[in-house]
Every structure is written in C-alpha cells, then in structure tokens.
Amino acid sequence: MDKKIVIIGANDFQKPLIQKAGEMGYETHVFAWRDGATGARYADHFYDISITEHKKILKECERIKPQAVATIGSDLANITVQYLAEKLGLPGNSRECICCSTNKYAMRQAMKAAGVSVPYFQVTDGKETEKITVPSYPVIVKPTDRSGSRAITRVARHEDLQEAVRNAIDQSFEKKAIIEEYLSGQEYSMEAISYEGTHTCLAVTKKFTTGDPHYIEIGHLQPAPLEPELKEKIIKEIFCALDALKIRNGASHSEFRVDEKGKVHIIEIGSRMGGDCIGSHLVPLSTGQDFVKMVVQTAAGEKPELNCRPLQKCSAIRFIMDQKDLETLKHIEEKYPQNVVEKVLEGQPGTHPVTDSSSRFGFYIFQTDTMEETEQMQLWK
C-alpha cells in the first residue's frame, strides 16, 4: 500500500516538509488557501481549502486514508493537525496539549500547576482596561493565541497599557490579550523532538530582535554560545515544561530568556517546529540532524532517526528589515559567497513598515565551520 501523508499549510516555511515527505516516499496531500501557497507545486495533490476548515479537510482525509498528518512552524495549522489525528486515529499529541501549547494563558496556567516557574500573568478581554492593576512595570502585552511577533508590546507605564491591550486583542482570534511581567536577559530558543514522552534537544538557538517595544525577530544563530553547565540547566527546565504541557510526540520550539544571574525564564513553547527556518534549515546545517524527517517519522508513529555523529558547524539566518540589510547581504555575497546557503527577497525595503514577522523583506541563510568565522561577518551590527 502506498504511504500517504496529509500536510496542513503550503507557504514557504511548509515547503521543506512537503519536499521531505516526498523524498521519503510519501504521496503528499496538502491543504491550504491557494493565495500564498508557494509549496503547492511540490505536492502530489493540493486542496484549496483553508486550514481552519477542519470538517471539510476531515472529509477529504477519510477518503485519502493517510498514515500521517503533519505541519511545521504554525500554531493555527497545529490545531488542525491534532483534530485530524484524533479523528483518524493517527499518532499525535492530545487535545489538552494543543490547547496549552497554542494559547499563552492556558500555557502559563498549565506550567504553574505543574510547578514550573512562571512570571506574573493575567488575561483580559479589553473591558475596563483602565481598572487593570499590575504589580510593577514594565510588562509585555500580546495576543493569547497568535505567533509571529504579532502585536507584542513592552509597556513601561500604565497610561500606555490600554492601547497595547487593544492592539493585541485586534490580532487575537479569541479576542483576548495576556499581560505578563517583563523578563530581562538574552533570548534563546530550544529545538527538540519527542517520541512517546522522551525528549531530545537538537539545538539551542540565540535570538536577535528589534528590541523594545515590539521585539520582531531579525535573526537566529546556532549553536547558541553557552557554557555546558548552563545548557544542561536549560535542557532540564525546558523538558519539565514540555511534560507540563503534555508534549509527547513531535517537534517543539521553546522560547526563553536567561538573566544576568543565570536564571532561565520560559517565555512560551510551541508543540511544533519553530518558524523562521530554524528547524527546517538551521538545525541540519549546524548539527546534521534531519529535523524535518523526524517530524514525518513521529507523525507516522515511528521512532525518529538521530545522527549519532552530529556536525559541529555554525548556521544563521538574517532577516532583511531595511535597505541597510540589503547592502550587508551584498557585502557578504561578495566577501563570503561560499557561506551563503540560501536567500529569499520579498519586495523592496521601505515600501511598507515592518510590524511583525510576516512583513519582513526576505532573508538569507549561511553556514560556517566555526563561530569565529560567523562573528567576522558582523551580521548583528
């Protein structure tokens, strides 16, 4: 019998999953709106159905009879994947897990109940915002159920809280915002794969953002330069949080900060691969681990294949935010052409403001043998 896989989503970040599943011998059935579905041409079968149309997709899946259903880099698609896997009797995480890992308020509640350290947090629907009190400022305000740096604002005084809440609610599907204690320190993420409740850390990524007030990501670097003792501490705390959220199978992307005292503060965790090419490109380039293949394997109920002799290289992605970034790219292509792995240009910088991850003007990915070579490129200045 031919192997079949259903993939939810078809944008640029889903393309590696579609291609990898095909390479693994799967007949690919991909669901997404046609608009922006750049991965559709790599699918064996494409269905122009919104990823939120759960019942319509299920009806097609009952005819297709897939052995697996998967997605990468999208919370919204991940909700659909869980629904389909449950209805079709396929491997996957529980409904409770998906609820806790796609809703930031439910996530904080689950981690707190399990004894995982969490900052102050509260949720609001925007009514009587002027009466909201917080222990101290600054705070971070964001939608409870969105990703991609949408409507994230650091608020330093009460007078600005109402506008930040309103902006977050406007972007929220459930029309709610979460208000959290502002966490200081360098930001990182951990990319992991889980199988039947056993977690494996594949990489820790250093994150670069625009900073205050909206923290839009401008780049990622692997491996994050960390002392071994601190890395072990991070892994232990993140694994406890994965258990608290009942993440048992598949990829996870955990974002956190480490403060000046070395304390780990978890920001949020997704029960799916991180976007921004972190899992699909940076992990294999820096470690040699085929993360996307592992996503397919765990979706099919198979133990993921780990490379017992991983690479020890450096990889990074730099997003194009303005004209200066384009000039930096040109300089790197001229001076370090052998290190540029891929580039994607999307529009001309300056034609619109960069308000979140989806409005950036493209990116470029590179790989080096050492961290010293990466530092010589001066990408983050």
Automatic annotation (TrEMBL):
The keyword Ligase applies. Residues 108-300 form the ATP-grasp domain. Coiled coil: none annotated. SUPFAM superfamilies: Glutathione synthetase ATP-binding domain-like (SSF56059). Gene3D superfamilies: 3.40.50.20, ATP-grasp fold, A domain, ATP-grasp fold, B domain. GO terms for molecular function: ATP binding; ligase activity; metal ion binding. Keywords: ATP-binding, Ligase, Nucleotide-binding. This is ATP-grasp domain-containing protein.
